[in-house]
Specification:
The protein is α+β, with helices and mostly antiparallel strands and 613 residues long. It has helices at residues 2-18, 21-24, 53-64, 69-83, 135-139, 150-161, 166-179, 185-193, 195-199, 202-208, 225-237, 240-243, 246-256, 275-279, 307-318, 328-349, 360-363, 366-373, 505-519, 524-529, 545-548, 551-560, and strands at residues 40-50, 93-100, 105-111, 181-182, 221-222, 284-286, 289-293, 296-300, 416-422, 427-433, 486-490, 493-500, 533-534, 541-543, 564-566, 581-588, 591-596, 605-611. Strands 1, 2, 3, 6, 7, 8, 9, 10, 11, 12, 16, 17 and 18 form a 13-stranded antiparallel beta sheet that branches.
């Protein structure tokens, strides 16, 4: 049934992509039969959208009991750590964009993991060969685990902006962990994607697999008393229980002295984390990025997230064309080329700003965007295109010489995004992850959650002489990320928010949803569901099947020379796809529209406190 629904929704949306805006905006969200999930909900009192029904319910429960959007985001995220431990939980990190209605202020929390102090630029170089480690191999190693930052983010957000305690906001997650939840087909598929890693660790095998080491059957009631206990202890003792206490010591021991299954050959590089690394961690409040586009103010995350700068630069480039008046193929050609150029600048200049000088002002300057826009003519540029020069004075149509571009490593695609809003008008857009489906695959023994492998978001190989790379590992440095949801305002009033999963394709997913909604006139649910294509300064653009098989794709190739690779797999693939998204529309007069995916990764869950037509 799921595949039939997927084919139906994507075929309808492909037609919408080629149709007029009025047709596109009429497409409703569709729930998947038997899941209980609804991808669109409209009502008052507050709203939540996430990839999971229990998680969205947790956020709504907190809103109903006096919590605000910040409380709801923490409740939703912590419950996702129970029901979808492969993409969420205390072992990871993320970025939170918050609108505070009372002060009319946008703030962000940088909750990105840091590399242990012993990290070096050559940590992912094989000492025997002198070559970079294979990405998949490195991702399976405890060496790739960064300091978990999720709990610090939750605690910082609640201390500064929440209405309830961490203990109160963790109660819904504790309840789900104690009572259990039923394994569905999507959970089983996620298990299969990381089966070898889960089998390598006895604690992961005991929690997430059958005694024979196979995926749990669909319908199995999975309880996690260890995680329920962990959440209770965090609620009682606060974040110090992790960053300077027994949980932290357990994490360090598990990472540095991994307990592996006898006969394991997969895990060979232990971690290098220390308690001092945990004690040194701080989730940081920082100013958002901001650009103007079609009368909107678009706020997002500053570095080490690359989303705010890259989405912002691409929008600045695109603002020079009237996309809504162009033929759709021409408009999408401009989208692909703007994305291609913005990614070249992302890769060349964005890293942890505490370690590298990120020219953020230049990257977000409309004058700099003009020097990139003028490179776009009637045919697709050849990737990798070299970066531009985001330092004033901005002039000419020149790019830097090609050797200035670093070699970029792969980036994990396995993430989730949460949006929440409360009756007071506060909004949270929160993207978080443990990286791969299942992170490193290591469950912390006795504590019931998986550790991240986020340090593989660093570039592995030091660059050639004369080449600058802002994203090499270093002690306590944060790897560059693509996570960075947006909140959009018109005349100082919030109108919508959107965030996504999908590694480096997060940026193009957010960008395309904005264009679908703002330029092409699609309703926000249709904009989220529409087929996607992602250009990240690569020789080909990654296209979902419905887009790849469309006449529009063939026209882009024939007329503009754009080249595409099809994202293949059941429904949409786990390891190679433009990821799922969630969104929120502020309808006015206290009404909200929460939006989740109708199909991707099994569809998401949108809920409101008081449903209305």
């Amino acid at each position: 049934m799921r595949r039939l629904v997927a084919v139906f929704v994507m075929s309808v949306l492909t037609a919408a992509l080629l149709a007029s805006p009025s047709v596109a905006s009429a497409i409703p969200g569709r729930a998947l039969s038997g899941t209980g999930k609804e991808p669109v909900a409209v009502g008052t009192g507050g709203a939540v959208a996430s990839m999971d029904l229990d998680a969205s319910k947790a956020g709504i429960t907190v809103l109903k009991h006096g919590g605000n959007a910040i409380d709801a985001a923490v409740a939703t995220a912590s419950t996702l750590g129970v029901t979808n431990p492969f993409v969420a939980g205390p072992g990871g990190g993320g970025f939170m964009v918050i609108y505070l209605a009372k002060s009319h202020q946008v703030v962000t929390i940088d909750g990105r993991e840091t590399c242990p102090s012993a990290c070096t630029p050559s940590m992912f170089i094989d000492p025997k060969t002198g070559q970079p480690l294979g990405y998949d191999y490195a991702s399976d190693q405890p060496l790739a685990t960064g300091v978990p930052s999720m709990v610090a983010t939750w605690a910082k957000a609640l201390r500064l902006y929440g209405r309830k305690s961490l203990a109160a906001d963790l109660r819904p997650a504790i309840k789900v962990a104690d009572r259990g939840f039923r394994v569905n087909a999507d959970f089983r598929q996620l298990t299969e994607s990381g089966l070898a890693e889960l089998r390598a660790y006895p604690a992961s095998r005991a929690l997430l697999l059958t005694p024979a080491g196979n995926p749990l059957p669909v319908g199995y009631l999975l309880r996690n008393p260890d995680l329920a206990r962990t959440y209770r202890l965090l609620g009682r003792h606060g974040p110090s229980y992790l960053y300077d206490g027994p949980l932290g010591r357990a994490i360090v021991h598990a990472d540095d002295h991994p307990a592996v299954t006898p006969g394991n050959t997969l895990v060979t590089l232990p971690g290098i984390m220390t308690m001092s690394d945990l004690r040194a961690y701080t989730a940081r409040v920082q100013a958002p990025t901001r650009v103007r586009y079609r009368g909107l103010d678009i706020y997002s995350m500053a570095p080490p997230s690359s989303s705010g700068s890259t989405v912002g630069e691409a929008l600045n480039i695109l603002s020079g064309w009237n996309l809504s008046a162009e033929p759709r193929a021409t408009a999408l050609f401009h989208y692909l080329e703007a994305s291609r150029l913005a990614y070249a600048d992302r890769d060349a200049y964005v890293g942890d700003p505490r370690y590298v000088a990120v020219p953020l002002h230049g990257l977000l300057s409309p004058a700099f965007a003009a020097t990139r826009r003028c490179l776009v003519h009637q045919k697709a540029l050849v990737s990798p295109v070299p970066p531009g020069d985001p330092f004033p004075p901005y002039q000419g149509c020149q790019s830097q010489p090609s050797p200035q571009a670093p070699t970029i490593s792969a980036e994990g695609r396995h993430t989730n995004n949460i949006v929440t809003v409360d009756k007071w008008g506060n909004i949270v857009a929160y993207t978080n992850t443990i990286n791969f489906f299942g992170g490193s695959g290591m469950t912390v023994p006795g504590y019931g959650f998986l550790l991240n492998n986020e340090m593989t978001d660093f570039d592995f190989a030091p660059p050639a002489p004369g080449v600058y790379d802002p994203n090499l590992p270093a002690g306590r440095k944060q790897p560059r990320s693509s996570m960075g949801p947006v909140i959009a305002f018109r005349d100082g009033t919030p109108v919508f928010s959107v965030g996504a999963a999908g590694g480096s394709t997060i940026i193009t997913t957010i960008l395309q949803i904005i264009l679908n909604h703002v330029d092409f006139g699609m309703s926000l649910p249709a904009a989220v569901a529409a087929p996607r294509v992602s250009q990240t300064n690569s020789p080909t653009s990654l296209a979902e099947p419905a887009f790849y098989n469309s006449a529009l794709r063939r026209q882009l190739t024939r007329e503009f020379g754009e080249q595409f690779t099809e994202a293949t797999g059941p429904i949409l693939p786990l390891d190679h796809y433009p990821g799922d998204a969630t969104a929120l529309q502020i309808l006015g007069h206290g009404r909200f529209e929460a939006i989740a995916e109708p199909v991707r990764l099994g569809g998401g869950s949108a809920l409101v406190v008081n449903p209305s037509p």
